[in-house]
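notes to self, project folder thing:

trying the whole complex as one job this time. last attempt i did each chain seperately and stitching them together was a nightmare. two parts in total, labels are on each line so i dont mix them up again. if this works i'll redo the older ones the same way
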Amino acid sequence: MTAKGYLRKANPLEILSEADVEAIHRGALDVLAVTGTRFESNRALKLFEKHGCKVDYDLNRVRMPSGLVEECLRQCPSSFLLKGRSPKTDLTIGGNTLYFCPSPGMRTIDLDTWEQRVPTIEENHQAVKILDKLPNINLAASYTPYCELQGVPGVMLLPVSAWSRMKYFSKPQRVGSSMESHIWEMQMADVVGIDVFAAMEAAPPLTWYGDAIDCAWACAERGLPVEVGCGAVMGGTAPATLAGALVQSLAEMMAAIVMVQLVNPGTGILANAFVFALNMMTGSPAAGGIEVSLFQAAFNQLWRGKYNVPTMIGACGPSSSELIDVQLGFEKGISASLAAVSGASIINLHGGIHVELTYHPAQSIIDDDIAGMLGRFVQGIEVNHDTLALDVIHEVGPIPGHYLRNKHTLTSWKKEHFLPAVSDRLSYHDWIKQGKKTILENAKEKMETMLAAYEADPPLTESQNADLDRILEEARAYYAKKGLL
Amino acid sequence: MDNYQILKTSILEYEKEKALQAAQAGIAEGLEPMNMLNAITEALNIVGEGFNSGELFLPELIYASDCAQAAIKVLEDKITADGKVAEHKGIVVLGTVKGDLHDIGKSIVAALLIANGYKVVDLGTDVPTDKLAAGVRENKADVLGLSALLTTTAAEMGNVIKKLESEGLRSKVKVMIGGGATNANYAKHIGADAYGETAVDAVGIVKDLLQ
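result (full assembly):
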């Protein structure tokens, strides 16, 4: 048994022509062979050289033959398994299944003043507990949900974040790729018995730093999947044109895939899109823009359609809005919808508010309604004898006949209609009577109820808890010895 | 499981035939029909609470009340045959007025009232004035609930009240109205006793009217 996710029934939306796909693919191969990519890792450069790449050790530059790139792309499996703490949280990533993942933020946000604030460790635990119990959350990224914590020095943020999730989140997770954090995170995952996967995220343009390389290498050696991500900003660290940004992102990711497949052929790859446009007013990423959705739809088509590699669509979670408002809702809703219909395997959606700077668990509860709606949409329309309902239509007939009293309605409506958890569905009359509550107030109430009812499933044993604490202390000692604390 | 329990469970599982059979089997084996009615009340209380708390929805509420109605009829026939009178919180006759075919809102009101322990006689839709008055008389109704969704048919409600007056029934029955074409002012205008904006309001209104 695995977590159900949503099985996509309809063909995914394709926005590129066959010729477009081919031109972008060949463009990426051209970049890899001619200009090449920069790898800040001597062992990676040696590995590339051994397999026929041209390596310039002075510039840390590798130029790859197209044949090798295409061969390594073919080695990527079309799906892979990730084990959670119990069979109901196991995942099969890829194919036509849609899963959801939270979208992290550095800090929390005050729901009255909308000002940012560094959360406490306890608030991190609470936000993780909410994610653990949301029905549409299937896995987590690293540094989730917060990336800054009160009283925690920078180098310890990823290990503490992972420690919090290992204690209160029962589903598969990604490890962080900064300052060797993956070492501790992989040990913690072994303690609680879940699968983790690597984060190997490019430093665009066309560069791979040692931390990302080391994290991917360590996971690939152990047979764990690697999420290979592009994170350019169009007009800043990638061409402003969508086609150009796709070419560069593909080139970056293909170079990483070559490395991973050379380390361990057949390693599972998750292609992650985290590309924004540059906000030409401020110089920061313009989250929530429609060009992000164009990039993501083409990205899905290329990776799913051409390379048969599962995709993680990362830029649906954050918006440019500073607060939980209409702009946040439509930016998240539009980008997540387009990612879902264009064939994403995973959408990072829950909880993110302003770019990657803010997160709130109440928003993650609201986003679970969006995820449920999209999940229902991709499942499509079931057409069979029972759903065609001819017998029922004949039985009910014209007015005054109606279907509310019919057993067919009783037995079918919950399968066919999506029921939101916190979206307002009251009549005007009841809405007034119940205090004119907004969706945010509903979500805040639900958050309180969920926290009060939280029970780990399955619970950690005392020795598992003690081992997690011990590993965290070992990480602290390791960084202290290095003079980083 | 005895027939009392089967009756209760079959309503909670929306099994109409099973509820009916359990009521018949209970009578056949000599169970007290008045007592069997309690099984129905217990089941409907659970359904009503589920609906109020948002765990159950209209299809469940309406179908459970339909299951209950089928069994109630069998049990009440037996009670009458035994020369006794079934106890209710009150008797409510419902109907959508002449010319109007809208059934859903009234059906929800009926289901909610049944779930709250009232005896409901639903005369259906497009019910002529004479038939509504006869329904009140024959069932000794405590409350008459009239529904109309169309502005053109709402006027019919005033005619029903006049008919009750001319037949000397008006003092014996409270009249409540509801539906898209009606409002509190209109209720006052035609001399009705109460107006309900939503189906859920009907339960509180009936309770108040019968105090």
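what i see at first glance: Chain A has a mean pLDDT of 96.
need to look closer tmrw
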